[in-house]
What we know:
The chain has 25 helices and 5 strands.
Amino acid sequence: MKDLHTSATEARQLDEAGRLLEAKSYQEAHALCLAVLNANPGSARAYYLLGVMAADHGGHRKAIELFDRALAIDGQHSGALTQKARSLIARLERSQAVDMANRAAALQPEDPFTLVTLGVVFSRAGLHERAVPFYAAATAARPDDPAFHYNHGAALQFIGRMDEARKAYEACVALAPNNTWALSALTQIRKQTPDDNELPRLEAAFEATSADADDALRVGHALAKAHEDLGNADDALDWLKKAKAAKWAAIRYDPAADEALFATARHLAGALRGKSGQAGPAPIFIVGMPRTGTTLIDRILSSHSLVTSGGELADFGMALKRLSGTQSNKVLDQETLAAAERVDLSALGRTYAESVRSTLGLEGRFIDKLPLNILYAPAILAALPDARVICLRRHPADTVLSNYRQLFATRFPYYDYAYDLEACARYYVGFDRMVAHYSEVLPPDRFRQVRYEQVVGDIETETRALLDFCGLEFEPACVSFHENTAPVATASSAQVREPLYTRSLARWKRYEAGLKPALDILEAAGCLDPDERSPK
Length: 536
């Protein structure tokens, strides 16, 4: 049924509730919506606004209920459809979210809030090309909103339209000079030089915003990158330490939880040995620690005519979580990972395959390059008998440094180790022991380690070997990966559009003095040859 008659008074109340909601005056907005519903229980808009408030506070289950009530009254409410999609994607229910967003988009909404939210939903679903026109329309409708310009710029960056991305980021900074998201992005997508760099703007922004731990992270990381570009290794490390200090102090990182995950994964490698689900799709999983070349290998393989990149997908972990029935509030924890030993492996493989097919249309040979899938490798190979897992390895010291240098999503706790240099080194040690065990237990025709340095040193030989491992014929386009125009939504989105370079090899040597505590840990664990270090 449609909305019941709304009086002029109720319309004014809802208009005011909308303004209060935009100003984050939630209590007053909530009261007005309830007043309208007491007088008129058939107000779809009141339920819609209440749903937005619930979602803003992280109550996405409740928000979905409220959006459903709005849609029961008005099934063509594009705002309710869009915001329901937002809550679904926040709950990692990507297939349903994309379906809901497509329904909303078909109604051709013009409201800028709805438009930008559609962009966010499609971006989070990995559909960056689809997201761009919605961000563009939202920005055109509301050109004075810096966040709209930033979101537009990020989507443009992911699909390789770098000049347009820079313009969008600059438009954001023009409206909000201390917008740490845009300032960081501007620094990351271009090399800083003595004559043209962001240091003055970044230093001013750090002074103005560093009381907030997340702002300090973004600006401090950008300052570190700028100093690195300028050849100031000591200054770069100093800025990283400043950037991470408040966040490291605030989080509750538990190294024992990571070690428990590594131990459980090692156990699974043996427990699932010889077990198999039903034959089906043959995805290629590219895994490992972040910043070790996973995106490079993704670009090489997805340049093949028979291979499509799906980006970093959480679908396998979500499928295991659903089938395991574990009650924890995390997708990945020791209990859920251990449950892979008892779930129906065929059902696990089917659930994963259907998820990526229904949302992204991926069938045949496709790549899933979520680095964290390394923990699921034994379950992946058991549930998907035709899958291949490629694990990237990089020099231990470069791996630790690259993870410490990387600004990961602050809402994603699995990379909390990266806030502290010594924690990075200890995490690497646990990872290294796990992968060494995998190499002894997992089938070598389906699990392969690849050395980043070897790929950089001889790309054609390594590419041929990788293609052979995946059962694919060699194609010259694979060694011209930088010409691949597919979207890249990772920290390497700018670098992988360049021809292969060697400047990141042995980067740790430039920082060796400052890395001493981490290098000591690696050496003591047998991960680093002491002869590689400079004389003490």
